[in-house]
Design brief:
The chain is α/β, with parallel strands linked by helices and 246 residues long. The protein contains nine helices and ten strands. It is elongated, with a radius of gyration of 23 Å.
Length: 246
Amino acid sequence: MQIDILTLFPEMFSGVLGQSILQKAVEKSAVNYNVVNFREFADNKHSTVDDYPYGGGAGMVLKAQPIFDAVESLKEKAKCRTPRVILLCPQGESYEQRKAEELAKEEHLIFICGHYEGYDERIREHVVTDEISIGDYVLTGGELGAMVVVDSVVRLLPEVLGNQESHMKDSFSTGLLEHPHYTRPADFRGLKVPDVLISGNHKLIEEWRNKEALRRTLARRPDLLEKIELTDEQEKWLNEIKKEDK
């Protein structure tokens, strides 16, 4: 996958993209990052990329020209002629795991990180394919949002995680929150690991994990249960959990 990031602050990405899973993905040739300062595409001697909004109002608006030219330049160099162009903004669709899974199937992603009051609307209408918001709050710019999306997508690429099953049972990947985890020692300060997890009975362990995922989702994010179709077995477990927790 090719990931291009258009930003006015490219130095913000050096630490993030050069660490942990994001760096390992590069080492495994699963992804290539290209961080571009779109100020370089400004067509004026002062390299300004923003201007006052028509009609008046507070703040400055990102001009269409630098973004149009930057995206066109990236497309010309790309092997994939139809990249997804993603705008990070508060007005975008709320970001969810299903979107990460969708984007992970693409060959080329271009992220636009804006600042100031907003974007010239022509950028949205004629350049962007996706608008994404990582939450109902406002950040100074789109850089942090882009980092979140990139991280969530890259970890899904083939061979990036050591165990390909790692992400398949992550919270939200199954539609549920993930079950609790424990590791050694089995008894820490009198706090013991559930007996089933050290029983060696894999069938019972899997059942326990499935039930605990349902229990945790019911307790913390019951809204998720309305979005998925439970199996007959899951329905039975959910009814048992509701009775247990009364």
